[in-house]
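agent: user wants the full assembly modeled, not chains individually. Plan: 1) parse entity lines 2) check alphabet per entity 3) run joint structure prediction 4) return tokens. Steps 1-2 passed, three entities, 810 residues total. Proceeding.
--- entities ---
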Amino acid sequence: MTLTVSADPPAERRLTKGLPVWTDIAYGISLPLALLLAWGLSSRFGWPPEQILPAPQVVWATIVELWSDGSLAEHTLQSLRRVAIGFAIGVPPGLIIGAALGLLPRVRAFIWPVFTAVAQVNMLAWLPLLVLFVGIDEELKYVSIAWSTAIPVILATTRSIADVSPKLVELGRVLDFTPLQRVSTIVLPAALPSLFTGLREGLAAAWQSLVIVELFASFEGLGYLMTWGRQLFQLELVIVAMLVIAAIGLLLNASLQYLERFVQPWKTEDPHGS
Amino acid sequence: MNQIYPSPTFQVESIPALEIHHLDKSFTVAGRELKVLAGVDLSVKIGEFVTIVGASGCGKSTLLRLILGLDLDYSGDILVDGEHVRRPGLDRSIVFQDHRLLPWLTVEGNVAAALRRSSLSRAAKKETVREHLELVGLTSFSKAYPAHLSGGMAQRVAIARALVNRPRFLLLDEPLGALDALTRLKLQDELKRIVQREGTTALLVTHDVDEAVHLGHRIVVMQPHPGRIATILSIPEQARQDRSSHEFIRLRDKVLGLLAVGAGACQTKERTVA
Amino acid sequence: MEADASPPHLLRGAARHWRPFVAFGVIFLLWLAAAQFAWVDPRFLPSPAAVAARAKTEFTTGTLAFDISESLRRNITGFAIGALAGLLLGLVLGFSRTAERIVGPTLLAFRQIALFAWVPLLSVWFGGADAGKIAFIAVAGFQPVVINTWQGVKGLSPAYRELSEVLIFSRLDFARLVALPGALPSIFTGLHAGLIYAWLATLGSELFLNVTPGIGGRLNEGSQLFEMDLLFLGIIILAVIGLFYNSSAHSLETWLLRRRKR
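--- prediction returned ---
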């Protein structure tokens, strides 16, 4: 027995965590409602001006309009397609390079500092250089999204494999496993949770860099919608695009968290985790 | 069952300092009522050292928690000097199983932290901290940080912290449970000496029967499901003095026999608080 | 975004060896050879000498030093504003359950907006010049700081909370002796990530907002004028600044938390 003294409050808390109490929902929704109310009221009195903050009903009308003429779906799908392709291109090399660096400490000792130095320069700085090599078309989007995906995946994969407890590795040696057995029965399962986290980070990074690259150069997609709205001083377009971006971000995050818990039910995730 | 046999060599005034009447306590776990303490009656006199022994997770620690005033949700009475316990107070202090020192404070700072609510002058605080570090033999470590102490040393600091306010009650929740066997034996003797010297009334929870017999004037044997007092035995002075005496062995075997009855019946939740 | 930069202990040891220098050396030699023997079109891969020459002219007669200092100024100003706001709000959320219940969900929802999606809105609200850029940098620095501070205070071990109850700490003592030092590692993580995001935003703001002096703007210019030597120089400088930020944040953190580890 370590300490039953503190055993009980967490148990209670865990209970309330499972099913949100209605008061929590009421509290949580009070601020957005208050903001919305203030926004609606102030726009009714013409402050701030329409170009600075369009009224909520204007934003709503824009959503309805963009939805009914299909352009919102079109832009969103285009953005999602880019993320999917870029992510799909970025993950395999990320996993392979990461696994190689993780499994081969000697290679890692040579390469790792170079890699961190490269990773240090974020995608944005490469963008002007990249433009010269691949132009500003779809290739630019795929390459930069793949790049942003690969880096966190490599980092997480290398670490997850390199950090596998030496005790477990020792166990593999005691049991006289072949190198292949060692990797498949000990290293991979032990590294799996952090590997998954790496993929989640990679997807988040892909989504972030999609917005960057679409703002930088594009003729369709959510980033383009925002740039266009800004140039026309139609902030309702900007706000609609932000809402869609937030909604997709939320969805991606939530589904991956769910998947993560599904894959490893023993791990309790804190609800506010990244 | 719950008769009290005053120890023949027990010389202090027989005013009960702590009285517990008909104490019932239950938790709600996953919507189900779980009774952890049932009909506990106990009275402890000033200057007495009472040990509580029982299988793991059977309400011993909960009992301490209630005496501390950390949890007020119970039925029955807990009286300290005839007053109901309503909140934690400096007249009752505790040593947890994990030393629970604050890692960012020095040994000195940790002991002094317990004096935040004391009305002593700055100089007097300093002096009493010094005295208590001397009492546990750690004067030369007063500037060290907890990370640099061994488990036994850290637990001594925790004991000094618990005593620095000169509490009337010292509650000990398996204070030596996490230590190795040799350190544990050494600290048992020291604990006995310190408590005797300070004249504090002490209540120690343990699952080490030897420890319970060696330290206590009386030993409370608890049984699980729900936690209740099986019997209370007085420990003759001879048994306390000499671990190899016939009395010691007889008493230990008796307690072990009593515990075996309920052994294995209690596997309620246990949490490790690191 | 490559916000995560503190190498874990297992990998850090490698950096002390001679091996990484070999790798850097080999890359440099390859670069030198490629330029020397014209393996690659020099328009796409300028020689080290060309980059060095560009650096010399830029720093003696050009404006690059001024550009860098302007970028850093905006970066530090924006980060200071964002981090301070994040720290304060994070502490309020960590200490007050009511504030957490009211503001927390909204904050988490806002966090789902990809960082750069703020650019168009902020540029309209604050203009595309200095104010808009600094506002964006502040938003970038704010997010990780507020979340980590909040979670740091909230995630304090219940054992320490119980201890504070037993020692009858006042709220102030609890904050000063227990909660703040306990949350410190998490707060640092937030500040570190905030610093990296703010640096990213500094570059981004120069790419996406009005042209003002700054290193990001110069990079863009180099790209449009096809000045590869300038681009290479810029990227090297950015890597150095990034490394400097990371390592100084890391060593500050290690120094401040030195007592907690054996």
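agent: reporting back. Chain C touches chain A through 69 residues (CB under 8 Å). Residues 7-45 of chain C form one domain.
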